[in-house]
Each structure stands twice: as C-alpha cells, then as structure tokens.
Amino acid sequence: MAGGVTLVTGANGFVGCHVVRALLSQRTPVRAMVRPAADRRALQGLDCELVFGDIRNLDDVERAVRGCDCVYHVAADYRLWVLDERPMYAANVQGTRNVITAAHAASVRRIIYTSTVGALGIGSDGLGRENTPVTLEAMVGPYKRSKFMAEQEAVKAARAGIPVVIVNPSTPVGPYDYKPTPTGRVIVDFLNRRMPAYVDTGLNLVPVEHCAQGHLLAAQRGRIGEKYILGGENLTLKEMLLRLSRLSGLPAPRIRLPFPIALGFAFGAEAVARTFTHRPPRASLTEVRMARKKMFFDSAKACAELGYETSPIDDALSRAIKFFRTSGFAR
C-alpha cells in the first residue's frame, strides 16, 4: 500500500522479516517494531526504522504506530509448548487488542492481522477454508486457542468499522527462520538425523516469500473483515520428509509411529520437561494431538480476490535446508 510509513510488528520474526523485505522491495518506508531483547539477525542489512517495544504494552504500541498509515500486525507468541500459558494469551490476545486500538486511534488506513490456518476448521472433504465452521473448544493447545481468540478480536473490530483484513498463513518454509519455528525445527531435526520415525499427519506448506507477498496483496485488495488463507502445497508428513530426503541427500525415516505410542512418548517427555529441564520437550502432547488431523487447506479465495499466487514447495525447502546448514543449525 503506497503512502506514508508502514508499521510491521514482530518484524524480526520469520514471517515478519519477509513482510519487511516485500515492503522494502516496493520502496515502502518501514517501521519495524521489535522487543528490546529480541534477536534481530533477520533484519540485518535492511533499510528500515527500528522501534523498540512490547505489544502487550499499549503505550509502546501507540508510540510505534504514530504517523503510520498501514499496520501489519505479524507479532505473535508462536510456541507449541509453554510452562506458563499466561504470557502467550497476553501477547496474542491482549497484544492484538492493543495494536487494533492504537492503530484505530491513529487513523490508520488499513490493518492487516496475521492469524493462522490453525484458527480455522477442517471441512468434511478434508480441506479447511475461511468459512469452515469451528469453535474455540475445537482448538488444541494454548497457541491455537489464543490465536482463535485474537482472530475474533480482529473480526469484531472490522464489524465495528475498523479497517482490518485478516490473513491466515499455513506453514511457511524458507530462509531466515532463526528461532526456528516448529516447522523449521522439523527440518533441523531431519537434517541432524534426530527424526527416527514420523506420524501419519499432513500440513500445507507455503514458500515464506509468497506468504509475505500475500500480506501486501491483502492490504491492497482485501475486503475489510474478510479472511484469506495464504497457503501452498498440501503434503503428508511422510511426503514432506521424502522431499527433504531428495533435496538433502539424507535418508528419510521409514518407521511410522502409531498415535498411542507417540502420545505416550510425548507424555513422558513433557513430564521430564515440566519437572526437571523446564525446556521444550522433543515432542509435546499438543503437537501429537494436533497431528491427529491433517491440516490441509484451500487458498482459492485469496487467489480469486487478491491475485495471490504460490508455487511448488521444493525450492523453498531447498533454500530452508541451505539456510539451516549455513547458519549452523544443522550439520
């Protein structure tokens, strides 16, 4: 969206840094909001204004949004296991409320809220769409529940006349995943030969650059109050691992782990994590429970209304492999 300064919250994150890159490629002045202690490697060398703050603090957000005419609210607490759920709800729900409140008070022309396909339902045909019915009770784990609640905040704001458009990315893949995200961790574990088995699940993989471009298209062409799935290719986990095998030259795991065994392993791993290590377990109960349902999605609405386009995931997987190897995450 042309005009004045554009604010990107969570600008140092995986999707956020690619939204920044997409905006800069169109010569849009960018103000990047990051937490003071955040890892800023993903923004290194980018010509953007940094503003430090926490979306949980309304004063910080008001200061960051001042003088902006467009806001991409990408920031989120994206973890599938936490010792304490309260900071996640504060960031994802209250943080979203703060960004919308501050942006509206600053008369921002458009707010793009980054939700997730995890907040959507799966239809009887096995595909999730923007209008597939779903409830909060169907959300597995605090991340999905908090993002579902945050999305409802965005919907409510749009109904009140605030110019909010919602995008629902699927599973982005590509470079600059410094955290790494849960999906990036799967790739890192595969590359480090730490994945002896897999479960029968599925996910929708999208090149992260296409996901970022979808954000810009939503700002330009999206209808206020509407949701747009920014997805790519539907693959089972086994198919994804076979792609990684072909691209990396490493063997794919051949053992399919039954869900009861996977649940038992996750239960034990979480018990150790909560009692002793206080660090994320190798597998969490939330991850295994989420894996019971294949997360396949349809991006037809975004393609038709926004002109959104994507491509086969192999090139993005290849670039992710290269990034994790050259950055020292993988051998």
Low-confidence stretches: none
Based on helices, strands and strand pairing, what is the structural class?
A: alpha/beta
The N- and C-terminal alpha carbons lie at a distance of: 41 Å
Main sheet attributes: strand count, strand direction, barrel closure: 7 strands, parallel
Written description of the protein model:
It is a single chain. The chain contains eleven helices and twelve strands. The protein has a domain at 5-175 and 206-233 and 297-312: NAD(P)-binding Rossmann-like Domain (Rossmann fold), CATH 3.40.50.720. It has 331 residues and is of the alpha/beta class. Strands 3-2-1-4-5-6-10 form a seven-stranded parallel beta sheet, sandwiched between helices. A three-stranded mixed beta sheet has the order 7-9-11. A two-stranded parallel sheet has the order 8-12. Helix 2 (58-65) packs parallel to helix 3 (86-105), helix 3 (86-105) runs parallel beside helix 4 and helix 5 (182-191) packs across helix 11 (314-326). Strand 5 (110-114), helix 4 and strand 6 form a beta-alpha-beta unit. The mean pLDDT is 94. The protein is globular, with a radius of gyration of 19 Å.
